[in-house]
Amino acid sequence: MGGEISSIAYDALKTAAEHIYGKIKEGKKLSTEDIFLLYLGTIVEELRGVRAEVARLEKRIDDNNKRIDETNQKMVEMHQELSKRIDETNRRIDDTTKMLLQKIDETNKRIDAVYQLLLEIRQLVAQR
């Protein structure tokens, strides 16, 4: 309803301004009310322009907010993917570390066995 009243008031003001313009073309003297209506018409036109600019800026803000939200979502997705990759890399490092420790243990056992064998050979050589 507010929009209808505003539209009706604008149309009435426009009609009055056209009437006043006719008086100006005829060279008639303008009343204080006529001048006031012209001034009011100017203010209303400027207000319409301001409203249009506000609407345009609100749309730009909404568009920018949408882009920010999309960027944030992409960042969250990238973070999740990076976390998965880091976890996978850490798992692979852990697996490699376990495998290397097993090989080191096996190598140490073999070294101990060779050392034991050398001791036994030394004892045999000493006995002969």
How is this structure best summarized?
This protein is an all-alpha fold and 128 residues long. It has helices spanning 2-25, 32-127. The chain has 2 helices and no strands.
Structural write-up:
By secondary structure, this protein is mainly α. Helices cover 94% and strands 0% of the residues. It starts with a helix and ends with a helix. The model has no long low-confidence stretch (mean pLDDT 92).
The main pleated sheet reads as: none
Number of strands: 0
Low-confidence stretches: none
Give Rg in angstroms.
45 Å
Residue fraction in strands: under 5%
Structural class: mainly alpha
Number of helices: 2
As a percent range, the share of helical residues equals over 70%
Which shape, going by the Cα principal axes?
Answer: rod-shaped
pLDDT averaged over residues: 92
Write a concise keyword list for the protein shown above:
single chain, 94% helix, 128 residues, 2 helices, rod-shaped, mainly alpha
Q: In terms of topology, how is this protein built?
A:
Elements (H helix, E strand, L loop, with lengths): L1 H24 L6 H96 L1
Helix pairs in contact: 1-2
